[in-house]
Design a protein that fits this description.
The protein is built from 17 helices and 14 strands. The chain is α/β, with parallel strands linked by helices. The chain folds into two domains: 8-132, P-loop containing nucleotide triphosphate hydrolases (Rossmann fold, 3-Layer(aba) Sandwich), CATH 3.40.50; 140-386, no CATH class. A six-stranded mixed β-sheet has the order 9-10-11-12-14-13, with helices on both faces. Strands 2-3-4-1-5 form a five-stranded parallel β-sheet, with helices on one face. Strands 6-8-7 form a three-stranded antiparallel β-sheet. It starts with 7 loop residues before the first helix and ends in an 8-residue tail after the last helix. 38% of the residues are buried.
């Protein structure tokens, strides 16, 4: 039996928002642990609870026939799982949230972004709060599990697989279900074979700036098509577009976003890697560390006001965060002994960084200059809390 990892920070975030709003949405990829989080909240909820899983045909049928009666008569905590399967419910939930006689609070679980859900004619703006549910973080599993988390990724069942072979089988089943059931379930008419090919191709472009024309030529389709494929993967939390930072610096800047596969385990599976030895010898080893570390840092600080920076002449910064009116920089280097580079000094000067951290797979924390510090990934996930 697999062990359970209790995600206390997310559970507390859900509880706080349920106290403040008539509706709370947990958004994250399928199998990332949203249902498990909801069960923890339910187990300690002081009143009655109801769960409607829209993956179940009988539940969808009941919701289709008498949704207003079914939901209006509920009291306490009402959980609707895979809510994106019935976008018409959003129209119904708005008046229910506004009803002064309302006796319930709604917890909505979704594995697609609101922008991707078709047919939502009414929004819950001002009535709903969101909790983003990423994969497991290094803080949740412990620094000693860094190599395993990096290799297997943050899906709980993948990370906790009993062997490398079991991990491969889980990834095979997950990717097949995602392409053949989840994407069509959103109303998409994209061929699973075409999207699967594009997904595998993105693994080789992981960490690079987006170039629709180049990918379109590789797939022999139009740039419009590859942009649509990209949006499907971003909207289902499989991929991330990290926007560029640019302002009037008097320099020619890169203005295309960077694209990452959000889960390192998915990346490795699509690259055909089965264990850590395979990873260490692969040409995308450094890019894998960059993507993994980026996601971990963003899971700690959120992805609001997060950018990368690059000039046409080669100066780069992997991650720029704007927090508390200051600018903080992160470089991710897959090396045992990181060193400063000219590019780092240029980024500090151009962006007026408060500080720049070089995040590497090791454990030591030491200064490289007055404004540049090398540190471990787990330290990087808490370093901003120690700076005003």
């Amino acid at each position: 039996m697999q062990q359970l990892i209790v995600r206390d920070g997310l559970i507390e975030a859900i509880r706080v928002r349920l106290d403040e709003s008539p509706a709370v949405a947990l958004l994250g990829a399928r199998q990332v642990g949203k249902t498990t989080l909801a069960r923890y909240v339910t187990s300690e909820w002081p009143g009655p609870t109801s769960i409607f899983d829209l993956e179940q045909p009988a539940t969808r049928e009941a919701m289709s026939n008498t949704p207003e009666i079914l939901l209006r008569e509920q009291t306490g905590l009402v959980i609707i799982d895979e809510v994106q399967r019935m976008p018409e419910l959003f129209t119904l939930l708005r008046p229910l949230c506004d009803d002064p006689k309302r006796k319930s609070v709604f917890l909505l679980l979704g594995s697609a972004s609101w922008d991707l859900v078709k047919g939502v004619s009414e929004t819950l703006a001002g009535r709903i709060q969101f909790v983003d549910v990423p994969g497991l973080s290094l803080i949740e599993v412990g620094a000693g599990q860094q190599s395993s988390l990096w290799m297997r990724g943050g899906f709980p069942r993948a990370f906790l697989a009993g062997s490398d072979d079991a991990w491969v089988r889980w990834m095979d089943n997950f990717s097949r279900t995602f392409l053949e059931r989840d994407i069509p379930g959103l109303g998409s008419r994209v061929s699973p074979a075409a999207l699967g090919r594009f997904w595998r191709m993105l693994a080789h472009y992981h960490g690079q700036t987006w170039n629709a024309a180049e990918l379109a030529r590789s797939m022999d389709v139009s740039p419009v098509a590859v942009n649509h494929y990209r949006d499907l993967l971003v909207g289902t939390f499989m991929a991330r577009l990290l926007p560029p930072w640019y302002e009037n610096l008097g320099k020619r800047l890169v203005k295309s976003p960077k694209l990452y596969l959000r889960d390192s385990g998915i990346l490795h599976h699509l690259l055909g890697l089965e264990n850590r030895t395979d990873l260490r010898s692969h040409p995308r080893y450094g890019a894998s560390w960059e993507g993994f570390a980026t996601e971990q840092v963003l899971s700690a600080y959120g992805d609001r006001e997060a950018y990368f920076y690059a000039t046409q002449r080669g100066a780069e910064l992997d991650l720029l965060l704007h927090r508390r009116g200051k600018r903080w920089g992160f470089e991710f280097k897959c090396t045992d002994a990181p060193k400063t580079t000219k590019s780092m000094h240029v980024a500090i000067e151009d962006l007026k960084l408060e500080h720049l951290w070089v995040v590497y797979p090791g454990e030591k924390h030491y200064p490289l200059t007055d404004q540049i510090t090398a540190l471990s990934l787990v330290d990087a996930m808490s370093v901003l809390t120690n700076h005003a």
